[in-house]
Design a protein that fits this description.
Length: 471
Amino acid sequence: MCALTLGLRWALPFNVDVSWWLIVGERVFDGQRLYLDILETNPPMAGSIYFLGVALARATGLRPEAVTIALMLALMTASLGLTWWLLRNSKLSGRSAAGALAVWAVALLGILPMYDFGQREHLALLFLMPALAVLIRRVGNEPVSIVAIVIAGVSAAVTMSFKPYFALGIGAAILAATLQARLWRILVAPEHWIAGVLVVAYAVWIYISLPAYFTLIYPVVRDVYLLLAAPWLALALSGATMLWLAAVFAVLLLQRRHKPDATVTVLLATSFGFAVAFFVQRKGWGYHAYPMVALSLMALGYAVAAVDPVTARVRIGASLAAVAILANACVWFNASVDIRKLEAAVTKLGPHPKIMMLGGAATIAHPLVRDVGGTWVSRQEAFLIREIVRRARQEQSFDAVTSARLDRHVATERDGLVADFRASSPDVVLVDNRDSDWGAWAQADPELAQLLKPYALVQTIDGIDILKRMP
């Protein structure tokens, strides 16, 4: 299972957002300012492990991608090791199946993410595992040491620091644990206070050290990014939701005649909380669904291996169902964009090009720019503001005040594009005309049209124009 995990890292393309965060890390270490010189909508914790990867890569001379993968594998090992240590002397029913459950956990944490390996949701689940272990002990009314309390508090705090939405998963787990154990003190367990204090301290630190996150980034998130929302029906019928429901239904079927198990309860409740987060975010992106699917499958694996009495025929059938759901989930989470032809064309244009892309799809430019040894010269991952506003106006109307506010955001993004273009004189400009009108938009803007005059069209691949700056 570990060998397959390593093999997938070599065979699958590097994730787009992880590639972008490595660029962010390199720029920060070069002296640029996050949220001012580099525009990013996520809080700083989102870049933590990637920044560490960049720092270690510079110290060792290795590629940041390789170091980041190694860090992720080390984190996965530490997470599973800590979880085992916290549950080692527990009275759980799954002790006899510890080996099989360990293999299943490696599959869910190392293989299931597929293309989304290293995404923030993947990181969050790895950090969350020790906190769930302590909560399982609480349900069983088992003793919890001071060290375990501190580990659980830090574990939950780090998880919530990636995204506030993740508090829904933790909150659902705490509430379910309290109801099953009928011990109200679980609601006010000391690890929850530790987590709360750390999260508040983290928010205060951002406010003091990185005020631009609140003054510049938050208004964009509030006014623009929340407009990017998939229909509720599409979310409900998505592959992720179907896989999650299948796993949950299988667990409930196995548990229907047995006393509710502490581990199953905590895992399913956490999965439900992350499912709520998936729907609340309303994007429908694969990595948003990863925690809910992984935790439901974790609960299913535990129910199959650890809950007695289960007949051999039922156990075999449930095992096959779990493997089938996992296989289908792996296919669903492997939704990446094939940019190999584009990479080959850009590589021919010269070594280490400075690259800019006019488009709202981050999946094209990253990790292309890193694979060709180039330099990304834009202050942001992609020009999402104009794209989101354009699509929103096709689907709904806005009052004059809101429309003017959106226009200001679009104008600010455009001005930043022009400033970056003038400052860097990119060697290669990619223009995304697949589903939008970026080429026509740029030519209709007198300043951008003037900046593009020195560029010649080299090739068009799948609707993306490749422009090269001529001598």
